[in-house]
Design brief:
The complex is a heterodimer of chains A (about 230) and B (about 100). Chain A is of the alpha/beta class. In chain A, about 40% of the residues lie in helices and about 15% in strands. Chain A has a single domain, classed as Spore Coat Polysaccharide Biosynthesis Protein SpsA, Chain A (Alpha-Beta Complex). The chains are: A alpha/beta (about 230), B mainly alpha (about 100).
């Protein structure tokens, strides 16, 4: 395992009804030497919060479900408050491989980056369903490019690492899934140094389909007008 | 004057009174109030003088006056629905802020 040089590395896990998986995710992070973990339970109706508390991690609970973007921003607000040096976004559905984290942090420190975006397309470990690989994600990449000016190899990958500088500058306002695009847009806007890093994604469920993608597009367009109307 | 014209004019007059009332209580800004008053006055003019729509139709290159009214009404409805969606989004964000503040207390 690569050494974790930074003082406090905080992992933010947004979770909604993940009682069956959250324990495995947290134990995986422990195995990588990551002790500072905050689970943002986004109004789950199951035992997600209780399962996380059992393992001794910090749990923040939204009283009602507000969406993944909202949960991540709550985690970020907490991270700013406690003065975290590095923040990691890590999904609570056991899709990511925790072994990628130490390597990604080393990569970030070696390259002196502000932000690292995980990508499924930089190695061949992720078994991406055909429709996603060939149609949905390439299309989403270009939609992201239109809205952000950044053409990344992946779109809507929930694995990210932020430096303290990035954490202080980036504020998520999109409550649902459009936050992925919003984060990239803010990275570009604030001229933060970023690169992509290969991460593995395991598909237990299909995740965002075409309908989800259209919802994100709608949220992005509506979001553009929230300051005008 | 036809009964339908009297009915519509009465409805528009009530609408204008409501606009004044909402502006007076501070629920509607001056610009928004002016927009709505103008909207209902124009509606009243069309009711009194239906031929006005034919002139408008000619101006836009649409065949009939009734058609131009339908097109404008549709465009107006789309705009209002979109505006409502934006307002709902703003409300959602306010709710999130309240939920977050409570979570972090």
């Amino acid at each position: 395992m690569a050494p974790l040089v930074s003082d406090m590395v905080l992992v933010i896990i947004p979770a909604y009804n993940e009682e069956k998986k959250i324990g495995r995710v947290i134990r995986g992070l422990f195995e990588q030497g990551l002790e500072d973990i905050v689970v943002v339970d986004d109004g789950s109706t199951d035992q997600t919060a209780a399962q996380a508390r059992k393992l001794g991690v910090k749990v923040l609970r939204h009283e009602i479900n507000r969406g993944q973007g909202a949960a991540l921003e709550t985690g970020s607000a907490y991270a700013r408050r406690i003065g975290a040096d590095v923040v990691i976004h890590f999904d609570g559905d056991d899709q990511f491989n925790p072994e990628d984290i130490p390597k990604a942090i080393s990569f970030m420190e070696r390259k002196n980056l502000d932000v690292v975006f995980g990508s499924r397309f930089l190695d061949r470990r992720s078994q991406i369903p055909w429709l996603k690989r060939k149609i949905i994600l390439p299309f989403s990449r270009w939609i992201n490019f239109v809205f952000t000016g950044c053409l990344l190899s992946d779109a809507h990958n929930g694995f990210r690492i932020f430096s303290q500088k990035a954490l202080k500058m980036i504020h998520i306002t999109h409550d649902r899934m459009a936050h992925n695009t919003e984060i990239v847009r803010q990275v570009k806007k604030f001229h933060l140094r970023y690169e992509e890093f290969p991460v593995e994604v395991k598909y237990h469920t299909y995740g965002q389909g075409v309908g989800g993608g259209l919802m994100i597009l709608k949220d992005l367009i509506i979001g553009l007008f929230t300051r005008l109307i | 004057m036809l009964p339908i014209q009297i009915l519509l004019l009465a409805f528009f007059a009530i609408a204008i009174m409501k606009v004044f009332k909402r502006n007076y209580t501070g629920d509607l800004s001056l610009w928004a109030a002016l927009f709505w008053v103008l909207f209902w006055v124009l509606g009243g003019l069309v009711v009194i003088q239906p031929d006005l729509t034919s002139s408008l139709a000619k101006l836009f290159g649409v065949g009939r006056g009734a058609d131009v009214v339908v097109y404008l009404a549709l465009a107006g409805l789309f705009f209002m629905v979109f505006r409502l969606m934006v307002k709902i989004e703003k409300l959602e964000r306010e709710i999130t802020k309240v939920v977050r503040d409570k979570t972090l207390k």
